[in-house]
Amino acid sequence: MYYTTFSSRFLGLALCGIFVLLFNSSGMAKKKQKELSADLIVYGGTSAGVSAAIQASRMGKTVIVIEPTDRIGGLTTGGLGQTDIGNKMVIGGIAREFYQNVKSYYQKPENWKWQKPEEYRDGGQTRTDSKEDAMWTFEPSAALKILHQMLAQEKGISLVYNQRLDRQTGVVKTNGAITSIAMESGEVYKGKVFIDATYEGDLMAAAGVSYRIGRESNKEYGETLNGVQANKVSLTLGKTVSINSAHHNFIDGVDPYRVKGDPSSGLLPFITPGKPGLDGQGDKGIQAYCFRMTLTDHPENRIPFFKPEGYNELEYELLFRNYEAADGPIEKMYDYGGIVPWINSDMPNRKTDTNNQKGFSTDFIGQNYEYPEAGYAEREKIIERHRNYQQGLMWTLAYHPRIPEKVRNIVSQWGTCKDEYEREDGWQGQIYVREARRMFSDYVMTQRNCEALTVAEDAVGMGAYGMDSHQVKRYVDVNGFVQNEGNVEAHGFAPYPISYQSIVPKIAECTNLVVPVCVSATHIAYGSIRMEPVFMVLGQSAATAACLAIDNGTSVQHVDYEKLKLRLLADKQVLRINR
């Protein structure tokens, strides 16, 4: 395996530049594209991409993993250490190997620097039982080390950093198959089969594969939890219990206007004008993004929260008003979760995976709609805007005098970590892309699949988490108060199979591409599928299918499913459990 780092590539480009400078004056040299080839080209070094590379290597294939940034692992190494699973029994194969390696990592005393192992108590749905063979919570830095170790144990894997796909003209297809992909740098990668393992689906889109962005209407696929979800309701649908828009919302009576009670003064920032739409109606909204912050309260490892450049107090007025609208002690203002608007889940070494909670929190609601289709420069602006908002939020909660003292006393004990990420301020580069593009293939996973009303017969993995959507929109309700819209939390159903057809495009659109992350699913079904362990499972299955397509000289759509199934089971993938 070789690793092309930014520094080594920079040196190479510099030397190349000197060569061109010396010879261009006489017209003797022209720029030559660098071409690399392998059996399998994986675009996106997310957890799914890493899993795919390992599986392809084990099946005797050469692999190039192209990571657009300087860090592999995606959200698994980017802050999401509180693993969302639902049912651990469905996690097999390389994904379970990863979590087994996490347990082995933390069994070594030298990996406990800031805390004694007996002091650590994980919790929630990912609690690790003492009899389990795996561990489900971890530091991002630990996950990064483990993934690198797993890659290093395999042969024929090349990992390339900081190479972004030329999304305009970089994909070359012949007779419906991708033959090569070019990066913005001019580097070209040729392969027999390609895997798009990005959260955004950039290769899929550039290859001309159909996709969707936003929420379908409930009518389209006979669903009940898709589309606009503005009414605060609890539903019982068979074994499924759903709570819509009640959680992560404002308490009653929060005024939305810059001058309280005066609509002519204009809306406060981040409120969408107009009505939210009819319940169940489709739109282009996508659930909110945030950074899954890695925080610590250890004095030696903590970077205190700071006021970011360009801080605008008005952007947090809704937060102030939400606290000020409390009737009585703030401990009674919410029915769950404490007085701080976060879920601060413990990770090893006195660190956390900190997530959104309540009406005004880390989710930057409604500010990500342009992200899926945006160019790279615009995406960077959106990401930086999210980071700036969240940095300002944390400083506000920790130090602003309009925040209740009890809240400030809690939040100010925390800060980002000195030893987790490359940035000096302790913030990660990976934003939580909860959904972006979703492939539109011959098989679309829907709410009916999650509830076992429709069962995929060609399973390549299983989903087990609830159908979950974070808020999509912030608006003014009929009473003149601010509300969030889009939250769905539906649980109570058993694990369900994910169709192989949902990870391959329509055959008329591309015959040698597999898409294990931006799978073909409705908004609400994707809300269940979109979990890192499931992406790792689907990454392994995607690579298995790719290798079988290469071996048998077929399109990925014509892979013999029975052969695929046998290989997946032999490699300890879980395709079915007894209900």
Please explain how this structure is put together.
The chain is of the alpha+beta class and 579 residues long. It has a domain at 3-214 and 495-570: FAD/NAD(P)-binding domain (3-Layer(bba) Sandwich). Helices cover 26% and strands 19% of the residues. The protein is built from 13 helices and 25 strands. It has helices at residues 6-24, 47-58, 93-106, 140-152, 202-206, 218-221, 317-324, 376-399, 405-411, 447-450, 523-529, 532-552, 561-570; strands at residues 3-4, 35-43, 63-67, 157-161, 171-174, 177-182, 188-196, 211-212, 233-237, 240-244, 257-259, 262-267, 295-296, 302-304, 342-347, 351-356, 415-417, 438-439, 459-463, 467-469, 473-476, 482-485, 488-491, 496-499, 513-514. The longest helix is centred in the last third of the chain and has 24 residues, at 376-399. The protein is globular and about 70 Å long. The relative contact order is 0.17.
